[in-house]
TrEMBL record:
SUPFAM superfamilies cross-referenced by the UniProt entry: TTP0101/SSO1404-like
Any single Pfam family the record assigns to this protein: PaaX_M
Highest taxon listed in the record's lineage: Bacteria
UniProt lineage: Bacteria, Candidatus Tagaibacteriota
Keywords of this entry: Antiviral defense, Endonuclease, Hydrolase, Magnesium, Metal-binding, Nuclease
This protein's name: CRISPR-associated endonuclease Cas2
Gene Ontology molecular function: any one: RNA endonuclease activity
An individual GO BP term: DNA-templated transcription
Transmembrane portions of the chain: none
All copies of domain Transcriptional repressor PaaX-like central Cas2-like, residue ranges: 102-169
Span of the signal peptide: none
Length: 186
């Protein structure tokens, strides 16, 4: 079965939330439970409840989750094997950009202007872009030769900085020879 790429960062976030619940069920340590709940609480508050219900229905249809209604009316959601694969695909610490065998000649550019009050998110974005292999052209302009829009969308949503970040694909970039050398595209 071919993997589907989610275009909605909310869907990706929901899968990670469901995975956190799975992690709690597998971890006997109360200290770890506390950490997971702390992180989960932050993400859970950002999700629109009506939209959440629609996404859960989509996940059921796509066989990413199992849905079990208990006799007391409570609903239990669990990730299926396929759902776990999708959730793992979007772990931010394990994220990487795939390098195709042939470069399409386009540059992927991330430009941001994140306010000082969100300095931690700005620094985290900058560090993540470097970790993913982006080349820094200026303090808030990074470039990469390979397709990575889904990854950037997820990172932007993860750090909650959507209004401050732009992604684009460009065909012509002046003085690109040093970039081609850097990415071994010559």
């Amino acid at each position: 079965m071919k993997k589907k790429k989610f275009t909605s960062p909310i869907k990706k976030k929901l899968l990670l939330i469901l995975q956190a619940g799975l992690a709690m069920s597998l971890t006997p340590s109360p200290r770890t439970h506390g950490y997971i709940l702390k992180e989960l609480g932050k993400e859970w508050q950002k999700v629109n409840r009506d939209y959440l219900k629609r996404i859960i229905q989509e996940f059921r249809y796509e066989k990413l989750i199992d849905w079990q209604e208990k006799s007391d009316g409570a609903i239990r959601l669990t990730l299926t094997k396929l759902g776990k694969q999708y959730a793992l695909e979007y772990k931010i610490d394990e994220m990487e950009i795939k390098n195709p065998t042939v470069w399409d000649g386009k540059w992927r550019m991330v430009i941001f202007d994140i306010p000082e009050r969100k300095r931690k998110a700005r620094n985290a974005l900058r560090n993540k872009l470097k970790e993913l292999g982006f080349r820094e052209l200026q303090k808030s302009v990074f470039v990469h030769p390979y397709p990575c829009q889904n990854e950037i969308e997820f990172i932007v949503e993860f750090f909650n900085i959507r209004p401050y970040v732009r992604y684009g694909e460009i065909m012509n970039l002046t003085n690109e020879e040093d970039l081609k050398l850097h990415f071994n595209l010559t």
